[in-house]
From TrEMBL:
Any GO BP annotation: positive regulation of transcription elongation by RNA polymerase II
A single Gene Ontology CC term: nucleus
Keywords assigned: ATP-binding, Nucleotide-binding
Domain of life: Eukaryota
Protein name (Swiss-Prot/TrEMBL): Protein kinase domain-containing protein
Amino acid sequence: ISRGVRSEVHKAKDTATGRIVALKVVQVDRLDSASLRSVTKQLIILRRLDHHPNIIKLEGLVISSKNKRYCKLHLVFEYMEHSLSDLLATSRGIKFSETQ
């Protein structure tokens, strides 16, 4: 679906439920304290906003270890067909409320 400097997002199928999900894979350098703080902060924010109707729900998290220095976080999110940028691009002239 998308790719960043340290992460990739894939459309995937949850083998336990059969549902389509968004799988974000983040590579974390365990020796980089700024990277660890950033990932931790993002996870805390996602958990705090877990029940907000306009925030994609984090459904699961798996950590895998490549070696002593790097690990990968596999974040499982509910899947949405459209991104916010898609919605804004196709909704010219429509006014959204602050909560939308």
